[in-house]
Structures are given as structure tokens and as C-alpha cells.
Amino acid sequence: MMTPEQYIESLRRQKKEVYFMGEKVENVVDHPAMRPHINGAAVTYKLGTEEEYQHLGSAVSHLTGNKINRWTHIPQNQEDLVKKAMMLRVAGQITGTCFQRCVGMDGLITLYSTTWEIDQELGTNYHKRFKEFLIETQNKDYMTDGAMTDPKGDRSKRPSEQHDPDQYVRVVEERPDGIVVRGAKMHQTGAINSHQILVMPGMGMTKEDEDYAISFAVPADEKGIIYVFGRQVNDSRKWEGKIDQGNAKYGVVGGEAMIIFEDVFVPWDRVFLYKETKYTGKLVDRFASYHRQNYGACKAGNLDVLIGATASLAGMQGTMKASHVKDKLSEMAHLVETMYSGALACSFNCSQNGCGTAFVDPVLANSSKLNTARYYPEVTKLAQDIAGGFVATIPSEKEFDNPRVASYMHKYFSTGENVDAIERIKMGRLVENMTGSTPIIECMHGAGSPQAQKVVLQRSINWRDKMKYAAEIVREPETSPTK
């Protein structure tokens, strides 16, 4: 396994084509817009290698018997799924933001079982290919970008019906030694600091869409791959200072990017699904359940940090003992634990498929993500309420170096003789950072929007059984009640 330092250094050897704010980025590792997100991902390597966290962050490969990073592990039982959720909460508590490795982890888990099922039915050799790819990923401790979301174009039309055929990643050429693909994947968390890209179809496909029914892996710096790094609210603060960032070390969310595939060659040994449209819907649903398991855990960890910042401000501002503040803080904690309980519940109530992979309960996983999308904004609203309006109007940190007003900054942002103005502002900026539009939008749409979870619930809940329970209750008793 790699240490955090080894992971960061491994990125320096890559030759990615990355663009940000109209300019080519030659060095993503030290770029101020990107380094905080790289630090966040490095925490996944910290959990795998440091003794304090290894009980959660490492595992034993069922393929090789080697000790590996849990972010490359295929869960074999209930314990693996529970430790996955526990690991995510701890990572969230350390970073206060996204650590970016979850999508790739869930892609590995999903394709392991899906390729096995395809081979069992069709006699293909996808699973053998994938196992070889997985063993290399585990042995080298690669960070994988799980690339599922396409641009989609007109949402009312299928991939094959689009005005532009490249709105979904597709095969444009088949060769004896592999395929050539074209298209793009959007909103890719951790893409610029991953070692490899694992592409999956973004929706269930029909026979007419078979050119889009593909899954494959390529090195992240493969020729023809272009990255366009996305902007975030207040992102220019990353190169303007430290305090005003709020979370200077780990940033906001995951540093998302658009990945463009400009006629990229993929050898056959890295192709794991090729035009088998029947399995695309199953693959997407299975991936979604694993990924929705995560949100109740990682966001709980993030919100543990927000609760801490909010309570700290209440203490600094003399409101900690107010009954309404204590009530709001307990409500925040209640909502966070409810989110986390869903992640644990779908892990405990798991099943095992034919190849031995443990699978979360899909109804509980989707319910957990739906609760997270609903409760996360509520917790941030309570944090803003308690923290106060000063969070939205704090002057620049540069004013502390302004000889004309620096003394007044210290004087008027202090709320008591033992309260340091800078420390109060740091906490205020952290609350601002964690309750702004970027993390709230990501929490709502990451792993699918709330409507996507509702669709799964609508088709997964056994409505007939529920009606049967009610019918049994009101059924005429065999004997008349005593008058």
C-alpha cells in the first residue's frame, strides 16, 4: 500500500492534459486550485497505512491474500460492508469534505460481480480480465476514478437518439487489438488526481444503444484524454490566502472535472462490457446502491466537523448555554446520526451474490441517501442560524495586515477577553465553507438526485404485501366480539 506521501509523489509522474480557467495546467500536484483536493484523497492512504486507522482502512484481498487498502477491496461479508461505512465516517471527520475515492471503489465492487454474472450466462471472459485488472489495482494501490455520468444531452431522448451522438461515451471503431471510444464524462470527482479511469454506462440501454453499452479502464494519462477542471464558489480564495478558504488543507467537495475522450484506444484486456445492453441497467442499479450506502456515512463525518465548528462559535459568542441553541445543536446531532444509521442498516441487512460479493440492502441504501439529501441542508441551515450573520460579512484576512484597520479587526471580532478574533473568524469561515452552495448541491445530486432514489423505492417496495398486512388487520374476525 502507498503512504499519503507516496500517493502524492506518484501523481507527479503522470502526464495528464488538464485545463483550468482557460490555461493548461502542467503541475496539478502543486496547483493551488487542486492541491487541497489531492490532500483530501491522500487521507484514504493515511487510513490504509497508519496504525491508528488500519483496522478500518485496510483489508485482506480475497484474491491474493495480501493486505490491501480497503478502497480497492471487494466486500465479502457483513463485516466488510460495515467497516466500509465506518471508514467513510472517519475519513469525513478528518477532512470535513470529500475524499474522492468512493466512486472508484464502488465501481470496482460493482464490476466484479456484474462481469461474473455476464460470464456465467454468456460464456464471455470479462470476469477473468477484470480480476487481473483488480489485482493490479490492489497491488499498486491505485486510485480509480469511477466514470459513470455522461453529458446526456436531451434527457427525453435515449443515447442513440441524441442530436449529437457523443453525448454518451461510445465505441467509434473496433480493431483486432481493442476499441476506440469517444465522448465525455461529467462531474468527475477526483479525476485529475486518479491513477486510472474506470468507465461505466450511465443508464440502462436498449438494443439500439449498444455502441454505448461499454465498460473499460484506461490509465488516467492515456493519450486522447483531456480534463477540464471545474470552478467552485469562492474558489479564487485558494490562491489569495489561507483563513478565507475555510478548509485550506482539504478544500470544498472533491475537485470535479469533465473528462473528454478524444478517440481513445482501449485494448481488449481492459474492456469489461461490450454491447451487452441487457446488463447495463443491473450494473447501474447495483452501483447506485453501493454508492448511496456511502452518503449517510461520509456526510455524517463531514457534519461532525460542522457541528464542532458551530458549537465552538456558540461558545465563543456566549450563546452555548441558551436553551434554543442547545436544542438546535441536539437536532443537528440527531439528524446526523439518523443519516449514519441508514448507512449501517443497509450494510448489516446485506445479502451475498453468486460470486461471493456482499451486497447492501438496496431499499435501505436508497432510503439512506434520500434522508441524507434531505437532512444535510437542514443541518447546514441550523449551523448558519447558530453561527450568526457575521459568517456572511467577514472582511478579507488581508485586513489583519492592514495597519490602518488591523487593531480594529482584532478588537471588534473578539467576543470576550479570552476569545481570539482570528480563531473566531477561522471557525466562521469553516461554517461558510461547509454550508455554501457547492457542498449542498453535491450532496443532493451526488450518487443520483432524490428523484432517482424515489424511483428505486417505488419499484422495489412490495406494495402488495403492505396492503395484505392492512387487509389482515381489518379482516372480519372468526368470532364476533363480546357485546
Overview features:
single chain; 483 residues; alpha+beta; 6-stranded mixed β-sheet; 4-stranded mixed β-sheet; 14 helices; 14 strands; 47% helix
Can you put this structure into words, describing what you see?
The chain is α+β, with helices and mostly antiparallel strands. Helix content is 47%, strand content 14%. The chain has a six-stranded mixed beta sheet, with no helix packed on it. Strands 5-8-9-12 form a four-stranded mixed beta sheet. It has a two-stranded antiparallel sheet with strand order 3-4. A hairpin with a 6-residue loop joins strand 3 and strand 4.
List the helices and strands and how they pair.
Layout lengths: L3 H9 L4 E4 L2 E3 L9 H15 L4 H4 E3 L6 E3 L8 H18 L6 H21 L3 H15 L3 E4 L22 E6 L2 E11 L7 E4 L14 E6 L5 E5 L27 E11 L3 E4 L5 H37 L6 H26 L2 E2 L5 E2 L2 H26 L18 H7 L8 H15 L1 H9 L4 H11 L2 H12 L9
Parallel strand pairs: 1-10, 5-8
Antiparallel strand pairs: 1-2, 3-4, 6-7, 7-11, 8-9, 9-12, 10-11, 13-14
Helix pairs in contact: 1-2, 2-4, 4-7, 4-8, 5-6, 5-7, 7-8, 7-9, 7-11, 8-9, 9-11, 9-12, 9-13
Query: How much of the polypeptide forms β-strand, as a percent range?
Result: 5-15%
Spatial shape: globular
The first-to-last residue Cα distance is 75 Å
* Quaternary organisation: single chain
- Catalogue the unreliable spans: none
The tally of helices reads 14
Mean pLDDT: 96
Spatial extent as radius of gyration? 24 Å
Order of helix and strand elements from N to C terminus: HEEHHEEHHHEEEEEEEEHHEEHHHHHH
Number of strands: 14
Secondary structure: helix percent: 40-55%
Structural class: alpha+beta
Give the spatial strand order of the biggest sheet: 2-1-10-11-7-6
- Main sheet: strands, sense, barrel: 6 strands, mixed
